[in-house]
Design brief:
The protein is mainly beta. It has 3 helices and 28 strands. The strands form 4 sheets. It has a 9-stranded mixed sheet with strand order 1-2-7-10-13-16-19-24-27, with no helix packed on it. It has a 9-stranded mixed sheet with strand order 4-5-8-11-14-17-22-25-28, with helices on one face. The protein has an 8-stranded mixed sheet with strand order 3-6-9-12-15-18-23-26, with no helix packed on it. Strand 4 and strand 5 form a beta hairpin. It is globular.
Length: 234
């Protein structure tokens, strides 16, 4: 790839490859005790979305691969009641998926991650040891290793639109400026690329198209504008 945001557009491809490997190493199961399988259907009966809804507290003693649903969850992960996981999803080992988490599909989550109460995630990659414990939104993004999102962090993925855009249902691609050069990402929805060890303070909002260098600290109640924000100098 040339630019890091191109990874976001390829998440579906990565998941197909990962599921092939998972299928070779794990026996497929139909469901898990304590979880209900639900489908959203069209009027003609076609399945639009597949999901699981957690009904009681579960700590997985072994990894679980629900092949027909397109969901994999690693050993030692804790699932709390009312969490919803939509397909496709890959979640690593020793994670916490807390009460009310809403995982909207097309997500890859590493090991030892925390996805907390009312945290919503879609079309994103979450690296190992990353935490989004409270009231977060993460859309069309990549969060690096050991990143931490303070309570109320919103990683916005849709830029503001004019009335004309809304009426025509048009979404212009997000453009960002790096070193005085305007770059068209080609993406209608793009949240952020958050580097390793980044600390984001509570109630922070990142604008669509924010690139945050590793080891950065973002103070609480900050609005991070789109574009590249380099790592702090040592």
């Amino acid at each position: 790839i040339e630019y890091p945001w191109e990874v976001v557009a390829r998440i579906s491809e990565y998941m197909k490859e990962a599921f092939e490997e998972i299928a070779r190493e794990n026996e497929s199961k139909i469901t898990i005790n304590g979880i209900s399988v639900q489908n959203i259907r069209e009027e003609d009966g076609r399945v639009m979305e597949k999901m699981i809804v957690v009904e009681k507290l579960i700590k997985l003693k072994v990894s679980v691969f629900l092949k027909d649903l397109g969901i994999y969850i690693g050993k030692g992960t804790v699932l709390e009641p009312t969490a919803i996981i939509k397909s496709p999803a890959i979640i690593g080992s020793e994670c916490e998926i807390r009460q009310g988490a809403y995982l909207r599909g097309n997500i890859i989550v590493g090991d030892n991650c925390t996805l907390g109460h009312t945290t919503e995630i879609k079309n994103s990659i979450i690296m190992d040891h990353t935490e989004a414990g409270h009231f977060a939104y993460i859309g069309d993004s990549v969060l690096g290793y050991h990143a931490n999102l303070g309570a109320g962090t919103k990683i916005a993925n849709l830029q503001l639109r004019t009335p004309e855009e809304k009426e025509s249902s048009k979404i212009n691609p997000i453009k960002i400026t790096i070193d005085e050069k305007v770059i068209d990402t080609g993406m209608q929805k793009f949240g952020a690329i958050v580097g390793d060890y980044v600390e984001i303070g509570c109630n922070t909002v990142t604008s669509p198209g924010a690139l945050i260098g590793k080891n950065s600290w973002i103070l609480p109640n900050t609005t991070v504008i789109k574009g590249y924000h380099s790592s702090p100098k040592k």
